[in-house]
Amino acid sequence: MNKTKATIVVYFALLIVEIAAELILYFHSISYPLYLIKPLLMPVLALWARVYANSKQLKLSKTVYLALLFAFFGDTALMFLKVKPDSFILGLGCFLVTHLIYIYLFIELNTKKITTTIKRKPYYILPAFLYGLLLIGLLYQYNQANFMKIQAIVVIYAFVILTMNLSAFSLYKIIEKQHFVLLFFGATLFVLSDSVIALSNFTPLFTGKEYMARIIIMSFYGVAQYLIVYGYIQANAKNHAVV
Questions:
Q1: Domain of 169?
Q2: According to the 3-state scheme, what is the secondary structure of the chain?
Q3: Taking the model in full, what pTM does it have?
Q4: What is the mean pLDDT of each run of 10 residues along the chain (243 residues)?
Q5: Of 22, 54, 78, 214, which has fewest CB within 10 angstroms of its CB?
């Protein structure tokens, strides 16, 4: 097994162990496995990105590492949510930066300055708008005190992550189909992961089933990060290929 495959196998193995650690924390209140494993996810993914790019003789933008660095900070902050509830805001802020970086990277992929799908067909924004409206509407419907205290931050975050998703979608027919699928599917999984975080923290929908929320959040998040990084490397390499 070469270094590229070995590194990504380690990443997904860590993701599985991390999910198991979430369950251990939930059912047995043992936290140290989670504290040991979760901070390793993004560094290992960053290492894989470097190894993969080097194996293909591709130049990887340092901005990708910056996105993963802030995701690492976000993971670390949210890891202490049970013992320090205020860390939720810090984690949210870190992931907000990650999404802003991804928006920048997705826009950057349009190197040929072709009019994006959304500019050509702005009504494609409607599904994302309706999804955001439904999600925020649910949070306001339950009107929980912990949501109301930070409602403005959550609404801004929802806007940014949906913009990130639309930025990926805007590359439809601009980058190659297989690269678009990786980026858009990854961005969509990220939206769903963050949506479950909001629903599990600010509504009673996962009451008594918080372990299910953790499984969904981390499995979607882990796969999303891989797909976004892999899709970006591929699309960026194609855009800058010598023809």
A1: 3-239
A2: CCHHHHHHHHHHHHHHHHHHHHHHHHHHCCCHHHHHHHHHHHHHHHHHHHHHHHHCCCCCCHHHHHHHHHHHHHHHHHHCCCCCCCHHHHHHHHHHHHHHHHHHHHHHCCCCCCCCHHHHCHHHHHHHHHHHHHHHHHHHHHCCHHHHCCHHHHHHHHHHHHHHHHHHHCCCCCCCHHHHHHHHHHHHHHHHHHHHHHHHHHCCCCCCCHHHHHHHHHHHHHHHHHHHHHHHHHHHHHHCCCC
A3: 0.94
A4: 91 97 92 94 97 88 96 94 84 97 94 75 90 96 93 96 95 93 98 96 92 96 98 82 38
A5: 54
